[in-house]
Amino acid sequence: MALKIRLRRMGAKKKPFYRIVAIDSRKAREGRFVDLLGWYNPIERPAKVKVYEEKVYKHLDAGAQFSETVGSIFKNVGLLRKYQMMKKGEDVTGIELADTIKEKKKKKKKKKTAKAEKAE
């Protein structure tokens, strides 16, 4: 059984929050999961995250792969850096995981100039 660490959508219509779960890769998004590893709420500003580190490390050691989105969340929280340091045998006692994720700046659309419109 190939385990995947991914998000499971919860919450009401237009007000989602997500659980971070370990699940068989063949199961549906809302399918039965193996273990609850944390949660992520993107609606709050800044976005809130809670990760159960020990459970995540256990599944990563067992060979679980994470989705791109979960990898991004783990990176922003600092979990991946801490896990890599643990694998190397370095001291990680001073590293604390963040409980929020900073918002990325949105890209602004460039306005067309009069010259660009004439060239088209």
Brief summary:
This protein is an alpha+beta fold.
Write a structural description.
- 29% of the residues lie in helices and 30% in strands.
- It is α+β, with helices and mostly antiparallel strands and 120 residues long.
- It has one domain: Ribosomal protein S16 (S16 Ribosomal Protein, Chain: A).
- It has a 6-stranded mixed sheet with strand order 5-1-2-3-4-6.
- The mean pLDDT is 87.
Strand and helix map with partners:
Layout: E1 3-12, E2 15-24, E3 35-41, E4 47-51, H1 53-61, E5 65-66, H2 68-77, H3 79-88, E6 100-101, H4 114-119
Parallel strand pairs: 1-5
Antiparallel strand pairs: 1-2, 2-3, 3-4, 4-6
Major sheet: order of its strands?
5-1-2-3-4-6
- Which residues form runs of ≥5 with pLDDT under 50? none
Beta content:
25-35%
Q: Supply the CATH architecture.
A: 2-Layer Sandwich
Largest sheet: 6 strands, mixed
Q: What's the β-strand tally? A: 6
Structural class: alpha+beta
SSE arrangement, N to C:
EEEEHEHHEH
Question: Could you name the CATH class?
Answer: Alpha Beta
Number of spatially distinct domains: 1
What count of helical segments does DSSP give? Answer: 4
Shape: extended
Key features of this structure:
120 residues; alpha+beta; S16 Ribosomal Protein, Chain: A; 6-stranded mixed beta sheet; 4 helices; 6 strands; extended
